[in-house]
């Protein structure tokens, strides 16, 4: 009986974790270029098969059964949380410092106090010395950054123009090239807030050159589908309510059993 109570409790915790992911997606519905998170909830049968395939012991033995029982829980739980990089919508802002990436695997490179990071949020601005930065003040890196450590500086009275490859012009003069990259292992990227992604090594990044990558005067919207997220929210809440009822039923049974044993002992 107690095992059932623990299993239901674990399942409810799983739904609370799923609820946190859905709530975060909905909170970022209007965040520029936000990519939704999703989770994989593992069921007992599938997880059992995974552990069975990697089991270091001979199958159909007591030792194998003990290994499986020790290595996994029978409770459905989140086995993976991942980012869905499908591109969001593109909206026209008319702002020369707004840039939308046309590929869902493309990123700008920016410099933060914690090191170089990637972003797909192309809502940029100029700081007080004319350097192109994110709204948080992080410099947007040019393709030559690792050679000369220089940033993209736009002349005070210049009208900035950016072509589809990310080359920057003021008038007829090219003043730089955005450092556009794609990750060779996009699943290894991790979110850090402020629309930033951390990567493990620059060796996993490939520079994008001479292609149709950038649209000036546009921004990418989030790829959140509010209807889908609300359906998930309702489903999760219903599961939590169901687990609460089951827990209450288990607790009532435990209490009744304890009272019966106590009464029989006194008798």
Automatic annotation (TrEMBL):
<dbReference type="GO" id="GO:0009425">
    <property type="term" value="C:bacterial-type flagellum basal body"/>
</dbReference>
<dbReference type="Pfam" id="PF06429">
    <property type="entry name" value="Flg_bbr_C"/>
</dbReference>
<keyword id="KW-0975">Bacterial flagellum</keyword>
<dbReference type="InterPro" id="IPR020013">
    <property type="entry name" value="Flagellar_FlgE/F/G"/>
</dbReference>
<comment type="similarity">
    <text>Belongs to the flagella basal body rod proteins family.</text>
</comment>
<dbReference type="InterPro" id="IPR053967">
    <property type="entry name" value="LlgE_F_G-like_D1"/>
</dbReference>
<dbReference type="InterPro" id="IPR010930">
    <property type="entry name" value="Flg_bb/hook_C_dom"/>
</dbReference>
<feature type="domain" description="Flagellar basal body rod protein N-terminal">
    <location>
        <begin position="10"/>
        <end position="35"/>
    </location>
</feature>
<dbReference type="InterPro" id="IPR001444">
    <property type="entry name" value="Flag_bb_rod_N"/>
</dbReference>
<feature type="domain" description="Flagellar basal-body/hook protein C-terminal">
    <location>
        <begin position="215"/>
        <end position="249"/>
    </location>
</feature>
<dbReference type="InterPro" id="IPR019776">
    <property type="entry name" value="Flagellar_basal_body_rod_CS"/>
</dbReference>
<dbReference type="GO" id="GO:0071978">
    <property type="term" value="P:bacterial-type flagellum-dependent swarming motility"/>
</dbReference>
<protein>
    <submittedName>
        <fullName>Fagellar hook-basal body protein</fullName>
    </submittedName>
</protein>
<dbReference type="InterPro" id="IPR037925">
    <property type="entry name" value="FlgE/F/G-like"/>
</dbReference>
<dbReference type="Pfam" id="PF00460">
    <property type="entry name" value="Flg_bb_rod"/>
</dbReference>
<dbReference type="Pfam" id="PF22692">
    <property type="entry name" value="LlgE_F_G_D1"/>
</dbReference>
<feature type="domain" description="Flagellar hook protein FlgE/F/G-like D1">
    <location>
        <begin position="105"/>
        <end position="167"/>
    </location>
</feature>
């Amino acid at each position: 009986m107690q095992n059932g109570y623990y299993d239901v409790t674990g399942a409810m915790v799983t739904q609370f974790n799923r609820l946190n992911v859905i709530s975060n997606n909905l909170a970022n519905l209007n965040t520029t270029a936000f990519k939704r998170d999703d989770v994989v909830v593992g069921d007992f049968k599938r997880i059992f098969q995974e552990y069975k395939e990697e089991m270091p012991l001979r199958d159909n033995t007591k030792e194998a059964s003990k290994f499986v029982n020790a290595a996994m829980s029978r409770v459905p739980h989140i086995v993976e949380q991942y980012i869905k990089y499908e591109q969001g919508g593109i909206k026209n802002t008319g702002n020369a410092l707004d840039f939308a990436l046309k590929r869902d695997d493309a990123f700008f490179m920016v410099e933060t106090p914690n090191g170089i990071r990637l972003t797909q949020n192309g809502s940029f601005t100029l700081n007080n010395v004319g350097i192109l930065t994110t709204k948080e003040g992080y410099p947007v890196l040019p393709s030559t950054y690792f050679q000369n450590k220089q940033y993209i500086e736009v002349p005070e009275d210049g009208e900035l123009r950016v072509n589809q490859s990310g080359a920057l012009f003021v008038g007829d003069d090219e003043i730089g090239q955005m450092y556009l990259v794609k990750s060779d292992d996009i699943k290894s990227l991790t979110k850090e807030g402020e629309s930033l992604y951390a990567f493990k090594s620059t060796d996993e990044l490939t520079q994008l050159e001479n292609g149709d990558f950038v649209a000036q005067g546009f921004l990418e919207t989030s790829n959140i589908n509010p209807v889908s997220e609300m359906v998930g929210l309702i489903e999760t809440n219903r599961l939590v309510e169901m687990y609460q009822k089951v827990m209450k039923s288990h607790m009532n049974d435990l209490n009744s059993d304890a009272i019966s044993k106590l009464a029989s002992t006194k008798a």
